[in-house]
Write a structure and sequence with these properties.
By secondary structure, the protein is mainly beta. The chain has one helix and eight strands, in the order ββββαββββ. The chain is extended, with a radius of gyration of 21 Å.
């Protein structure tokens, strides 16, 4: 009798429907895209011989962006004093929460977030307006 091979050993995987983003104290519903990552520059150190003698580690860099529906942007702007822009909001943390199959929640904290700009790009035939917001962040705390 042939042995059954499990193709997906992880079961039900996490997807877009399992993500909740909390921004400025509220869960965001008008979000269509979320991106965040961090890197640490690492290099092999060469000296005598053909192979590296060690490895150096230097600067850390974190990046993030979100795409929000214009209605979500408008709601954020409406909560600010008149004449204030997204870029005028003081640094804040964003929490990305992922619900797993067993109903546990994994959270990542995107720290010291600031918007770097705002704008609209819309064309004939668009049924909704999505605004991509580049963010400046200090760091990411993974799996808090």
């Amino acid at each position: 009798m042939a042995k059954t091979t499990i193709i997906n050993q992880f079961g039900k995987l996490q997807g877009w429907n399992n993500i909740t983003l909390n921004l400025l104290g509220r869960d965001v519903v008008g979000i269509t895209e979320l991106s965040y990552s961090d890197t640490t520059k690492k290099e092999n150190v060469m000296a005598a011989g053909a192979y590296p003698v060690g490895r150096s580690e230097s600067n850390y860099e974190a990046k993030a962006s979100i795409t929000l529906l214009k209605e979500e942007i408008d709601a954020i702007l409406a909560s600010l004093p008149k004449g204030k822009r997204l870029q005028d909001i003081e640094p804040f943390d964003m929490i990305a929460a992922y619900e797993k199959k067993d109903s546990t929640i994994q959270k990542d904290a995107i720290r010291n977030v600031e918007f770097t700009g705002n704008g609209v790009d819309v064309k004939q035939g668009d049924g909704s307006i999505a605004v991509k917001c580049e963010l400046i962040i200090s760091h990411i705390d993974w799996n808090i």
